[in-house]
């Protein structure tokens, strides 16, 4: 499977100049409030007041609070995807697949370190994070790198397992509640990647080839 063939959904309609400016104004206001108060304290009322518009404008633009938080993450996700798809190595093409995989995990952890609260607030339900297009792109990218590194087994489930330690809720718990430094979490990710890549081939391969076609 090639990431070039993945569709992230229908392209958004082109915004008029004034609509794009208003959207940027609202996102700038929301980002400033996140920095000052933390994502959990940001309300639609506060964003509207900071931007100097009516609350209805914020709801029409983003639908609800989770939609506003997702919009804040959109550009970050776009930048990260561009970096691992077309950017310089080791995150982008040109480096060995395992080096790219380690770099991907470190880049994802860096995003959570800065925007972890926003990531959590963007989830409307516990399962939302597993259905968004950005996660599908990340899952496919990890799976492709595992295949390029010659890893054998159920690559789909291995990729899911590798993404699990990068879950924002878990990382935020490790950082804030457990006091684990980000560098240690990143090193743990690198160690896990190496262990997965060096693991022996499964004793049985029944159904694995079919699973890798999913």
TrEMBL record:
Which InterPro entries does UniProt cross-reference here? Homeodomain-like_sf, HTH-type_TetR-like_transc_reg, HTH_TetR
| Matches recorded under Pfam families | TetR_N
DNA-binding region location: 43-62
Q: Which UniProt keywords apply?
A: DNA-binding
HTH tetR-type domain residues: 20-80
A GO term, aspect molecular function: transcription cis-regulatory region binding
Q: Which domain of life is it from?
A: Bacteria
Among PANTHER family, the record links this protein to: HTH-TYPE TRANSCRIPTIONAL REGULATOR RUTR, POSSIBLE TRANSCRIPTIONAL REGULATORY PROTEIN (PROBABLY TETR-FAMILY)
* Name listed for the protein in its UniProt record: TetR family transcriptional regulator
């Amino acid at each position: 499977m090639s990431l070039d063939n993945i569709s992230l959904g229908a392209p958004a309609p082109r915004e008029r100049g004034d609509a794009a400016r208003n959207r940027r104004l609202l996102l700038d206001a929301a980002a400033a409030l996140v920095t000052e108060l933390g994502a959990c304290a940001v309300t639609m009322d506060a964003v509207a007041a900071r931007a100097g518009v009516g609350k209805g404008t914020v709801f029409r633009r983003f639908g609800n609070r989770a939609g506003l938080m997702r919009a804040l993450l959109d550009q970050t996700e776009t930048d990260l995807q561009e970096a691992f798809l077309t950017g310089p190595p080791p995150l982008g093409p040109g480096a060995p697949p395992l080096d790219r995989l380690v770099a991907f995990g470190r880049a994802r952890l860096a995003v959570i370190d800065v925007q972890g609260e926003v990531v959590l607030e963007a989830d409307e339900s516990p399962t939302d994070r597993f259905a968004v297009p950005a996660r599908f792109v990340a899952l496919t990218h990890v799976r492709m790198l595992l295949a390029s590194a010659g890893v054998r087994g159920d690559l789909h489930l291995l990729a899911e397992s590798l993404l699990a330690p990068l879950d924002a809720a878990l990382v935020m718990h490790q950082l804030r509640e457990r006091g684990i430094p980000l560098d240690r979490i990143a090193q743990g990710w690198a160690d896990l990647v190496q262990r997965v890549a060096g693991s022996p081939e499964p004793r049985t391969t029944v159904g694995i080839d079919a699973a890798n076609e999913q």
